[in-house]
Amino acid sequence: MQELRDTAGPRTVAVVGAGPGGLAAARELERAGHRVTVLEEQATVAGKCQSVHVDGRAYDLGGHICTNRYERIARLLTETGLETERTSRYRVLDTDGRAVRQSMEFLRDGALQRYRALREREFPRIAEPGLAHSAPALAAPVTEWLAEHELTSMADSFGTGYTAAGYGHLDEDIPALYFVKYVEMTGLLDPGPELRGHPGDFTVMGGFGSLWRRVAEELKDVRCGVRVTSVVRGADGVRVCTDSGPVEADDLVLAVTPDRILPALDATAEERDLAARIRSNAYRTTLADASGLPEDAFYFLAGHTASRASAGHCVSYHHRYPDSDTRTFYSYGRPDDATALLRGDVTALGGRLGEVRLRREWAFMPHFGGDDLRDGALDRLDALQGRNRTFHVGALPAFELVECAVAHAQDLARRHFPPVRGTLTRQDHRPATIEEEPQT
Ligand SMILES: Cc1cc2nc3c(=O)[nH]c(=O)nc-3n(C[C@H](O)[C@H](O)[C@H](O)COP(=O)(O)OP(=O)(O)OC[C@H]3O[C@@H](n4cnc5c(N)ncnc54)[C@H](O)[C@@H]3O)c2cc1C
Question: 248 lies in a domain?
């Protein structure tokens, strides 16, 4: 049974994880008059939205592309006073560097109309924050589901971008839920608003990491480089022990994937069972110099996105600054010979790989398999919200996109932590000290 919490006065809340989900929840809680401590194990905030600077230019290692569905992020950018710019155009290449035409057949062959009718009938809430509401209708493997509903042309149009973005190859058995959520969030199915004056996709000038640094600076207590060693939850509150001292709070927001915090958590059998079912994709970003490649766009490599047999090879690369040879390359897997593989891919494209500046490995897209979705894993996760003084936000309940993680976290905070009576809208913020983005 869900515990009744006294919400008349301010609550103290420990938030573990300073990615977009954790920071969005913390910001919402503080604005409602609650007292928040954010604990982050990395030296800096932003999670999978980190940027680095090379020769004065910002390179995003993870999340940064915002579509016309990113209303919460657009609002956050306006409120934090950051500038935005259009993203690079998208292009598809074959593995030997030839341009490939992206099929838009689904607009002409009736698939879009069939999809819209199906959406209205079976998963009308897909655009709302969270995933649990649509999981029962979309638990089947994606290719099976698309074929069953005569929507295969959607795979031709969206599959390359989906795989290039880290969500897996369509010939794996990933449930249709995740593909459908991704497709919805591209904003290409339905007309959407122009956000921040951009007719298409946009991003943050100077790097997406700057948004999360700005959000963190406005919070009162953000602690980076802190290792959580144990979490004990009891009738009187939550005690989070860290390598730099304990934090006592009324409530706990876990803005990390549950399997990451499990070793430190006084987990219940239900929490352990759910955590054991979480899967994720091994995905990586390589920041490297390369010459002789097609330039000035975000390139998806059709030959390496078509089948999981190509896992390990480069699936996409981004050339953001016309006057620089530095690019971000994206691939799956954890091969020993990652640089050799990338060098081979760049050579096949007609280029030459130069200095590899850094590599980041991600446990990308925490998700449940089809059987677990059918058995209600996401409903079970939802049922844990508020139990044992604990709340879960982040990509697992929301989907691995910034807008999804933020919208879900904001709504959860608003639902469970009403504003403290007399809370001022403008708060007396003491800026936290947030470590600068790394230079390479
Ligand atoms: C290469 C790449 C490209 C992407 N591109 C896009 C894009 O263009 N558009 C888009 O919308 N999204 C994109 N994403 C996805 C987006 O970045 C994520 O969905 C988003 O960052 C999820 O936010 P989160 O807060 O749930 O998790 P995270 O960003 O993963 O943050 C979790 C935080 O928790 C911390 N943490 C973990 N364990 C602990 C612990 N035990 N104690 C303390 N702290 C802990 C981590 O260090 C991290 O800072 C991309 C991601 C990657 C990797």
Answer: yes
